[in-house]
Design goal:
Length: about 375
């Protein structure tokens, strides 16, 4: 009996050719509308060595990929991602990169596919200047991913690639075979959720979104998904401090964060943070002091974790006399002018955080 395999970003299924189910008919519809990249000159990334298209993505409906930049799903040779495999092996089982890979296989046996599933994003698609185009955009995608790992935030793993005049972000598939990712912007709870909101409003919003998501699972599969709202709020709050404020992310909002649902446990939690191109561009830690004060009063455990990591990032190397964040930037950014910009941002925000912390703790002792 002939069967057809349907591989998507989130799951893999096998259909009988005589299947008359609604699911199979949807598959056929997707397949018939699929645009083959080998015959489509508009598809990005065709100049990348050993690139292979693997998902059914077109330009409309549910298959459309939204955002500021052109994107497509591909598989790329694992040689691009050596640092990821090293990090998983070194920190397993407590590493911070969310991937579709089997962590145990990577960490214990050094096993991973020859080709890695990746969301490919072109920063300067078709040579155009993008919205709020800044030369730091391409570097942000890599350096922020690494800083989030340093701060013990759950994050996607990004690499960057330059092919002639083209700039690409290679973001490793972050969803495991038994998981599903749901962007927070799909749950309209009547209030906005972004970096410019008071932190208390964002916490209320994410609580409402979690309730909506649980209700959705009840409707779709007949039982409510389990979740720990306090864990979700604390995870969100920490990411808000690190990415939204400390790394000055103009675009930290509900569309760049999501819930990850686990089929095995019928539960969900906050997924990895993603899309970093608008960090370090528009503002330096807008609302940083107020947020640190709020967390100090309401969530002391989150406050202590954040301050400890800022202090560690600010620590001097006894031999080079350089701050940890300076060595960090110099490791990943070769452009000297760009290094100065990043270091300036981080220096200013680090000093603001530590000064605010000093004042808060001084008042506490009085």
């Amino acid at each position: 009996m002939k069967k057809t395999e349907y591989g998507s970003f989130y799951d893999h299924r096998v259909f009988d050719e005589n299947d008359d189910s609604e699911e199979y008919q949807e598959y056929i519809k997707s397949f018939e509308s699929f645009s083959n990249p080998s015959s489509d000159a508009e598809r990005i990334g065709q100049n990348i060595n050993k690139v292979v298209e693997y998902d059914l993505i077109d330009e409309s409906g549910d298959n459309q990929i939204l955002g500021h930049h052109a994107k497509r799903f591909v598989r790329l040779f694992n040689g691009y991602f050596g640092e990821l495999f090293h990090s998983i092996k070194k920190k397993y089982p407590n590493h911070n990169y969310s991937t579709y890979l089997n962590d145990e296989d990577v960490a214990k046996y050094g096993l991973y596919p020859v080709n890695i599933s990746v969301l490919l994003k072109q920063i300067n698609a078709k040579g155009k200047k993008e919205f709020l185009k800044d030369d730091k955009q391409i570097y942000n995608e890599k350096i922020v991913s690494r800083i989030l790992d340093f701060f013990d935030c759950k994050t996607v793993y990004n690499e960057i690639l330059f092919e002639g005049d083209d700039e690409y972000v290679l973001s490793v598939d972050c969803v495991k075979p038994f998981e599903h990712y749901y962007s927070l912007d799909k749950f309209d709870c009547g209030s906005t959720m972004d970096v410019f909101n008071p932190i208390s409003e964002n916490l209320f919003s994410i609580e409402q979104k979690a309730k909506m998501f649980s209700a959705m699972t009840q409707e779709e599969i007949g039982k409510r998904a389990h979740y720990d709202i306090e864990r979700i709020k604390r995870d969100y709050l920490y990411i808000y401090l690190v990415r939204g404020l400390f790394l000055a992310d103009f675009d930290f909002c509900s569309r760049n964060l999501g819930f990850v649902y686990n089929e095995k446990t019928n539960s969900f939690g906050l997924g990895p943070t993603l899309d970093f191109e608008y960090c370090f561009i528009s503002q330096k830690g807008y609302g940083l002091e107020d947020a640190v004060k709020y967390v100090y009063r309401k969530y002391p455990d989150v406050y202590e974790k954040f301050i400890a990591h800022v202090q560690k990032f600010n620590k001097r190397n006894l031999f080079t006399r350089k701050r940890a964040y300076v060595e960090f930037i110099e490791k990943y950014i070769q452009n000297k002018d760009m290094q100065k910009e990043y270091i300036s941002y981080i220096k200013e925000n680090t000093e603001r955080v530590l000064q605010t912390s000093k004042e808060l703790e001084s008042k506490q002792k009085q």
